[in-house]
Amino acid sequence: MVTVTDFHEGGCLCGAVRYRVVGEPLRASVCSCTACQRRTGSAFGFGAYFKAEQVTLRGELNAYEHHSDESGRWLRFEFCPACGTQLTWTLEAMPGMRGVGVGTFDDPKWIRPRRFSWLRSAHTWVEPPEGVEAVQTGTLPPPTRP
Ligand SMILES: [Zn+2]
Ligand SMILES: [Zn+2]
Protein backbone atom coordinates (compact mmCIF):
# COMPACT_ATOMS: atom_id res chain seq x y z
CA MET A 1 0.00 0.00 0.00
CA VAL A 2 1.46 3.32 -1.09
CA THR A 3 0.90 6.35 1.11
CA VAL A 4 1.75 9.98 0.31
CA THR A 5 4.51 9.97 2.92
CA ASP A 6 6.20 7.02 1.24
CA PHE A 7 8.44 8.96 -1.14
CA HIS A 8 12.08 9.64 -1.97
CA GLU A 9 13.61 12.60 -3.75
CA GLY A 10 16.67 13.22 -5.83
CA GLY A 11 18.17 15.52 -8.41
CA CYS A 12 21.08 16.43 -10.61
CA LEU A 13 24.44 17.79 -9.57
CA CYS A 14 23.54 21.45 -10.21
CA GLY A 15 20.03 21.24 -8.71
CA ALA A 16 18.14 22.46 -11.82
CA VAL A 17 16.25 19.16 -12.06
CA ARG A 18 14.59 17.51 -9.10
CA TYR A 19 12.33 14.50 -8.88
CA ARG A 20 10.23 12.56 -6.43
CA VAL A 21 9.29 8.89 -6.52
CA VAL A 22 6.40 7.44 -4.56
CA GLY A 23 6.56 3.87 -3.30
CA GLU A 24 9.04 1.13 -4.02
CA PRO A 25 10.77 0.32 -7.31
CA LEU A 26 9.52 -2.69 -9.25
CA ARG A 27 13.09 -3.55 -10.13
CA ALA A 28 16.53 -2.47 -9.04
CA SER A 29 19.47 -3.70 -11.03
CA VAL A 30 23.13 -3.20 -11.67
CA CYS A 31 24.06 -3.40 -15.34
CA SER A 32 27.61 -3.98 -16.56
CA CYS A 33 26.82 -3.75 -20.26
CA THR A 34 29.22 -1.70 -22.33
CA ALA A 35 26.54 0.95 -23.03
CA CYS A 36 26.00 1.51 -19.29
CA GLN A 37 29.74 1.69 -18.72
CA ARG A 38 30.00 4.33 -21.41
CA ARG A 39 26.90 6.38 -20.53
CA THR A 40 27.94 6.56 -16.86
CA GLY A 41 31.70 6.74 -17.41
CA SER A 42 31.87 4.15 -14.68
CA ALA A 43 32.09 0.38 -14.19
CA PHE A 44 28.33 -0.17 -14.31
CA GLY A 45 24.95 1.48 -14.17
CA PHE A 46 22.65 1.11 -11.17
CA GLY A 47 19.01 1.74 -11.97
CA ALA A 48 15.72 1.54 -10.11
CA TYR A 49 12.59 1.06 -12.21
CA PHE A 50 9.26 2.60 -11.34
CA LYS A 51 5.90 2.87 -13.04
CA ALA A 52 5.89 6.20 -14.88
CA GLU A 53 3.17 7.58 -12.60
CA GLN A 54 5.33 6.95 -9.51
CA VAL A 55 7.87 9.51 -10.76
CA THR A 56 7.33 13.29 -10.76
CA LEU A 57 9.98 15.47 -12.40
CA ARG A 58 10.60 19.19 -11.92
CA GLY A 59 12.83 21.00 -14.39
CA GLU A 60 13.90 20.51 -17.98
CA LEU A 61 15.55 17.34 -19.23
CA ASN A 62 17.22 16.70 -22.54
CA ALA A 63 17.08 13.21 -23.99
CA TYR A 64 19.39 11.08 -26.05
CA GLU A 65 18.01 8.05 -27.86
CA HIS A 66 20.27 5.05 -28.03
CA HIS A 67 19.53 1.80 -29.82
CA SER A 68 20.76 -1.40 -28.23
CA ASP A 69 23.26 -3.19 -30.43
CA GLU A 70 21.92 -6.49 -29.00
CA SER A 71 18.16 -6.04 -29.33
CA GLY A 72 17.86 -2.96 -31.55
CA ARG A 73 15.34 -1.53 -29.08
CA TRP A 74 15.48 2.12 -28.09
CA LEU A 75 16.47 3.57 -24.73
CA ARG A 76 16.00 7.29 -24.05
CA PHE A 77 18.50 8.63 -21.54
CA GLU A 78 17.39 11.86 -19.92
CA PHE A 79 19.89 14.34 -18.55
CA CYS A 80 20.12 17.85 -17.15
CA PRO A 81 21.09 20.24 -19.96
CA ALA A 82 23.04 22.41 -17.51
CA CYS A 83 25.23 19.88 -15.68
CA GLY A 84 24.85 16.72 -17.78
CA THR A 85 23.78 14.46 -14.93
CA GLN A 86 21.81 11.54 -16.30
CA LEU A 87 18.80 11.16 -14.01
CA THR A 88 16.18 9.00 -15.67
CA TRP A 89 15.47 6.97 -18.76
CA THR A 90 12.71 5.15 -20.56
CA LEU A 91 13.05 1.94 -22.52
CA GLU A 92 11.15 0.34 -25.36
CA ALA A 93 11.58 -2.94 -23.46
CA MET A 94 9.69 -1.60 -20.41
CA PRO A 95 6.62 0.33 -21.58
CA GLY A 96 5.01 2.55 -18.94
CA MET A 97 8.10 2.45 -16.73
CA ARG A 98 10.88 4.90 -15.96
CA GLY A 99 14.38 4.09 -14.82
CA VAL A 100 16.01 6.32 -12.24
CA GLY A 101 19.76 6.43 -11.72
CA VAL A 102 20.14 5.30 -8.11
CA GLY A 103 23.15 7.55 -7.54
CA THR A 104 20.97 10.63 -8.09
CA PHE A 105 18.74 10.01 -5.05
CA ASP A 106 19.41 12.29 -2.09
CA ASP A 107 19.66 9.10 -0.05
CA PRO A 108 20.76 6.49 -2.61
CA LYS A 109 21.27 3.74 -0.03
CA TRP A 110 17.57 2.99 0.34
CA ILE A 111 17.74 0.87 -2.79
CA ARG A 112 19.60 -2.42 -3.00
CA PRO A 113 20.12 -4.22 -6.30
CA ARG A 114 18.17 -7.43 -6.85
CA ARG A 115 19.88 -8.26 -10.10
CA PHE A 116 23.29 -8.00 -11.77
CA SER A 117 23.09 -8.16 -15.52
CA TRP A 118 25.66 -8.32 -18.31
CA LEU A 119 28.29 -9.96 -16.10
CA ARG A 120 29.83 -11.07 -19.38
CA SER A 121 31.00 -7.47 -19.89
CA ALA A 122 31.77 -6.68 -16.25
CA HIS A 123 35.12 -5.56 -14.92
CA THR A 124 37.04 -8.50 -13.47
CA TRP A 125 36.64 -7.25 -9.89
CA VAL A 126 32.83 -6.94 -10.02
CA GLU A 127 31.28 -9.61 -7.77
CA PRO A 128 27.51 -9.74 -7.31
CA PRO A 129 26.58 -9.84 -3.62
CA GLU A 130 25.27 -13.07 -2.13
CA GLY A 131 21.62 -13.74 -2.90
CA VAL A 132 21.46 -11.37 -5.87
CA GLU A 133 20.38 -12.82 -9.20
CA ALA A 134 23.30 -12.62 -11.61
CA VAL A 135 23.02 -13.15 -15.35
CA GLN A 136 25.59 -13.10 -18.14
CA THR A 137 23.47 -11.01 -20.51
CA GLY A 138 20.52 -8.70 -20.14
CA THR A 139 17.41 -10.60 -21.11
CA LEU A 140 14.65 -9.25 -18.91
CA PRO A 141 12.47 -11.60 -16.90
CA PRO A 142 8.93 -10.53 -16.00
CA PRO A 143 8.72 -7.98 -13.14
CA THR A 144 8.99 -9.52 -9.70
CA ARG A 145 6.09 -7.45 -8.39
CA PRO A 146 2.92 -6.10 -9.99
ZN1 LIG B 1 21.82 19.88 -13.37
ZN1 LIG C 1 23.36 -1.67 -19.27
**Distinct ligands, ions and cofactors found in the model:** zinc ion
Low-pLDDT segments? none
CATH C-level label: Alpha Beta
Classify the helix fraction into a percent range. under 10%
Describe the structure.
The protein has 146 residues and is mainly beta. The chain has a single domain, classed as glutathione-dependent formaldehyde- activating enzyme (gfa) (Alpha-Beta Complex). 5% of the residues lie in helices and 37% in strands. The chain has one helix and eleven strands. The chain has one helix at residues 34-40; strands spanning 7-11, 18-22, 27-31, 45-51, 55-58, 62-67, 74-79, 86-91, 97-101, 115-117, 133-134. An eight-stranded mixed sheet has the order 6-7-8-9-4-3-10-11. The radius of gyration is 15 Å and the shape is globular. The structure holds zinc ion (2 copies). One zinc ion binds at residues 12-14, 16-17, 80, 82-83, 85.
